[in-house]
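Notebook B, p. 112. Complex prediction, attempt 2.
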Amino acid sequence: MLFKIAIKNLLGAKLRTWLNVFVTALSFFMIILFSAMYDGMREHAKQVTIDTEIAGGAYWHPEYDPLDPMTFEDAHSALPGDVQLLVDQKKAFPVLVSQASIYPGGRIMPVIMKGIPPGQNIVNMPTDALSGHDDIAIPVLIGKGMASDTKLNIGDSFTIRWLDTDRTYDADEGTVVHIMDTENFKLDMSHIWIPLKKAQTMLAMEGEGTYVTYEKGLPPVQDKGDWIPRDVKYLIRDMEALIEADEPNAAIMYIILLCFAAMGIFNAQVLSIFRRGREIGTLMALGMTRTRVVGLFTLEGGLNAFLAAIMTVILFGPLLWYFGNNGIWLGVDYSDGAMGIIVEKYLIPVYSVGLVVTTTIIVSIIVLIVSYLPSRRIARMKPTDALRGKVTV
Amino acid sequence: MGNSVVTINNLVKRFPVGGDFFTALKNVNLSLEKGEFTGLVGPSGSGKTTLLNVIGGLDSPSEGSVTVLKKSLGETSHNERAELRRKNMGFIFQSYNLLPVYTVFENVELPLILNKVDPQERYNKVAQAIEWVGLSDKINSRPAMLSGGECQRTAIARAIVHEPTLVLADEPTANLDAENSHHIMKIMVKLNKELSTSFIFATHDEKIMDYLRRIIHLDDGQIINDEQIDRPKSGS
């Protein structure tokens, strides 16, 4: 009975109902979109790191610690048997890492110099730009952020100074052959990339590497010497920690959006009860118990949310689908790493089943609560006051 | 007491006003029989509406006892009073109090829905009630599309559709012109005759005095005169 009356009331109120439903649907849309954008941002950061840097994992020289440049000096050796075999089979590529200093425009700047095989296609880096420059002493690949910091352009030359294996300082001229536009600022900032063979020659470390990155889906090798296998999980642990540390922020964001939705529904309910005081009194005079009137208004709030969910699918579903496929243009380039996390230029929201189910359940519970809270005031209302439209909520 | 619909003994009703109390009804004693067509008449503030609300169980007495249809309202719960209204009473208000989003049919149907009458019976009763008040051609209209007289006729149909024993009407003609007022009253007289429904009106409208068979004059919360009028039950 209440359901039938509630449906009649909702559909009968026409514009008022649809405005309420639209506002609630907009809240649903914002909650789902913002949460999905947040998830998308984090997922994208991981994906970009894997695509451009990690691939299937790596074998590290036992001395190598990417966070301590002082270790680079000793973190090099010939590759262990099976690791070398992977490289020979083009299923992996070695990188030789060392400290260096560059002098762009007369300034000194410490950098991490990495030798990488130009022909590798295991990670998404434009390393092929390093090949075919026999006329250049040291062909150099840098990122857009680095180019901006150093004010270097393609064709610009600068001095590179490095410490070779004999602990002797050497210097030569590097020339920028390509500026890569990468979303992974870790490949960009303070990095110069040169051909592996050139790096091995410069450092007098022929046939050596600091780490080897292998393609996705490869099983662990047996003969890896004392080199340390690092799987994807390990290599993205910093990012996972960052994301985990960011969970409270995500939760706060989610709660704020939920609060907006709840306030919208609460406001609509309060307004509805305030406007419909005489109707409440009439229903009581006709013999509806207070509990049932409370139930009716709560049910109307619930149905409002249900209609809003349907409207979200119909009205905002295509928009969510479009953003999910094409991304949202952020309009800002964060490739310099100023955000502390990889942020893509086009943010692609990720709509997980968990997000949709959790949002639906949480929003439904909140809708029922915020529908009930103002409605329960009806239970304390005197029918004679309600009939006179004297309603305080 | 056999045919008594309403029995009131020493009723006092006070309302809090600021830190004090305003006494709206003072020591009211009254008995109404089944099938009566009674008016509570008096100037504004005389206590007519308050007395009607107390009889309808919408308000509770401060002192005294009120028995409606053999139920002592002082001893009943909110829900029991709601049930009493739902099954045995009909209300007609000065400003109609129709639900604006409902059609005439749906407004009249509401008491039957509340009484869980099955749909087929509901349809028949609503159609009959609407026919009684002469609104069969407006069955799908909403209150906003009706004149004042039509709205009040809809309210009457809603009040009598479940064939209550008692109908309480608060200033039912106050917002209507003379023609509509007479039309409305004739309908109620007809219903009183055909269904033996008791009607109690709160009114100060002279136009309807001619239809009443009992006039209870109220002033300053007290009954100052209780006048039986010898008028044939078929009305004027």
